[in-house]
Amino acid sequence: xYMKYGCFHISLSMMAIALWAAHPGIAxxxxxxxxxxxxxxxxxxxxxxxxxxxxWRITDGSGAEAAEAxxxxxxxxxxxxxxxxxxxxxxxxxxxLVSPPVPMEEGCAALSGVVIGNGxxxxxxxxxxxxxxxxxxxxxxxxxxxSDARRRRFNLAESPRPETADGARLLVTAAPTEGATFxxxxxxxxxxxxxxxxxxxxxxxxxxxxxxxxFFTVQANFPAERxxxxxxxxxxxxxxxxxxxxxxxxxxxxxxxxxxYYYQGNFSFFEEEGxxxxxxxxxxCEPVSADIRVGFNLLWHEAFAxxxxxxxxxxxxxxxxxxxxxxxPAFLGGVSDxxxxxxxxxxxxxxxxxxxxxxxxxxxEEALYGLERMARWLDNGNSGVNQDxxxxxxxxxxxxxxxxxxxxxxxxxxxxxxxxxxxxxxxxMLPFSAVMDMYEATKxxxxxxxxxxxxxxxxxxxxxxxxxxxxxxxxxxTIPLSNHLGGLADRIxxxxxxxxxxxxxxxxFFLWETETDDPLRGNNARLLSIVxxxxxxxxxxxxxxxxxxxxxxxxxxxxxNPYGVxxxxxxxxxxxxxxxxxxxxxLEQPYGAVLHGVGPVAPDTDRPFFGANKNEAxxxxxxxxxxxxxxxxxAMAHLKRIPVAxxxxxxx
Length: 652
Prior knowledge:
Layout: E1 3-5, H1 14-21, E2 33-43, E3 57-60, E4 74-78, E5 84-88, E6 95-98, E7 102-103, E8 108-118, E9 123-131, E10 134-141, E11 152-160, E12 167-174, E13 182-196, E14 199-202, E15 208-209, E16 215-220, E17 227-232, E18 238-243, E19 261-266, E20 274-282, E21 288-295, H2 298-303, H3 309-313, H4 337-350, H5 361-379, H6 387-403, H7 408-423, H8 429-442, H9 445-454, H10 464-472, H11 478-494, H12 524-540, H13 544-557, E22 599-602, E23 605-609, H14 619-622, H15 626-640, H16 648-651
Parallel strand pairs: 15-21
Antiparallel strand pairs: 1-14, 2-13, 3-6, 4-5, 5-13, 6-12, 7-12, 8-11, 8-13, 9-10, 9-12, 14-16, 16-19, 17-18, 17-20, 20-21, 22-23
């Protein structure tokens, strides 16, 4: 799925190990091990404000749970600073403070630790190595010979991990001493992680636009002092070289860190079409290479029309239903057929100047299919169950009338619906869109006059009718729209400061539905919705950071993600991801399905997850819906409107 090579390095988590081990092609150097010390358990005075932490226990000499006995045997005692200590006052037999078991990650080779407290009791501390909850080794922590009762310290220099150990726990035991209490104020265990150095290269597997930002990402499990890259042509000649950004960690919601160090590469200034080899080098590790392409209009030639294929395959050939049905219900993605058609038709209007080119013909065909099906459905006496539906249907058909002015079926339905919403006095962006699209399609002044009466103000929902309105009236749209989009775009770019350039929302990459226990879907639909806004902002403010953001989200979907997988089925053959369909659903040809994408490892943990094999593939990440495809098509359509021309020397 992605390229991964390197010298020997440390594995920082079971997730990272499973990810890296699941993909072949790892080249390693020799005798170069990276070590890193990370906290695996920490308990401080500030952690005890609400009592004994979850999982911690107090046991007596027999190993049974020790009752608090009204605070006479043990208690969590606050101090004047609002912090606290766990205090043990043994009477007839010892009392032990026992930590919860700590699972040992595969790369953890040894543990060191410390226990801090105060009191005159006879006290011992020990580390227990566990295998399937059975103790396989016990290692004492040593107290210095000269010890102050006001600040006692027990140290574990370093305990190598037994071969069979899969966990560990800590015990602090206080013996009965008349009138004495031992209070534990801090516990810490630190793991020494050691493994081969490893480097991974993630990039857009479709290729890079000739005149556009060109970014890729490198992941390593060590901080490199030297990080460089180069492009070579098919003859092996170096045509471009650069330095990667400094390596840094990526932090998600609640400060959760992704595993490893990430470096960003940028060859945006390289604008020669062709096939190249991208090579990265970190310190003395073996170079990592991947084949890439650079081309003009590459994304539209290679990665647009395919996303229309699922719509065509999932069409419903039945005009007799009382409910509008255009595509198979199991794949709609939680929205209505009309909402999906609105995305299709609106996207077609956006790129209508290119509608006859090969890449966009399938979009035009799908728009016409949906419009004519809806027009026939409307002719059967349907119009929508409420005013909101009627306004949406009117906006769809009016936009369709602009696209297909010679279609009597579409034009008649558009006129009828638009007249209905005008007569009923409906206001809002959809009614305004309908009347302005009808004015553009027919040039009948009554539509423009009605648009004056219901002008809704500035909105990013659908800006074309606003621009039509500006071109025929004295209302200023472009400047306030530009200011509005610029404010949104600046906030979005400010929340994407990471080596992937990935969009965050509410402080997280994936947790946009934090109050749920269900598996959260991948973030593709959310990313593409943000791209729609940002691509529009690019039209009005030629800020390079806006354009970079847009391309970075597409890069993520097309392979520049921590799993190196293209998230559109069939786009990166033979490197295709697994597809998981809804229960009892079938799809003969899944090509072009935009997957839900990379999701969180857990609902409350904002780290990436995407199953590397069929056993790990879940519908929440490896599933798809036509809503995802609609978002992708709409985002690509908006991107197409950003003016781009081949380099001057190529045109000459």
